[in-house]
């Protein structure tokens, strides 16, 4: 395993780490036994960082992490997120009292004395502009309940705004071959500020595995079924903002990236890891096989400069105009 510094913090995290939305809920059926087996396998392979949130399965993914990491406080870092258990547009959701409640509830589920990285979970731009939530997080940090804090953002504009707050140590962003806008400005400025970059949705909700046919049907409780057009939350969280059928067609156009790299999924993760500003990538998983498949990206050959330019041209010429929603 390779490890990278999380911004200017004292934390070094595995470059391939994992997100736990899928084992919490909203990605179809789950099996807790398989989830725990996969978590423990990842840890045994050197993964030392997991991202979760209080709304993933209404705290269930936090509870699974507690069970899988019991006794490993000093070996495994956990990042969790807050605000989506309330009304994300209501300033009261970000008050000292409410955030403390969210934090302490997560600590209880995680069975930990502090949270390594506490993140605001995709708040609206107006909340970030008002900024008082950062004072709340400063207080929790001074009390020892959190070590560091960051923000999970939906757009580049939100990310740039977060960089103006001195104690923000990380940004979690949607970034993949279909979603390259952060390369234009955000990544460079984050690096100069000493802010780590955590990449979510690296496979565009599975599109970049190139395993779907145009007529594929997702389970009813899978967000890829009920949020394709942003019906339940930000449209960018599903298929990186692309419509499903368009995404399948675009994925077919770049099958070449998997040549000599095993498959498209490994290649897509490798492309992200080839960006020097990226701290880690956090693909999801449901079982040990998927964990192992994602870890193969570590040994996957990097992209040449010509290949990087080809993918950049592909994004600008064929993809960006089809992404829905602000990004």
UniProtKB/TrEMBL annotation:
Residue intervals of the NADP-dependent oxidoreductase domain: 16-314
Full protein name: Aldo/keto reductase
Domain of life assignment: Bacteria
TM region(s), chain numbering: none
Single Gene Ontology MF annotation: oxidoreductase activity
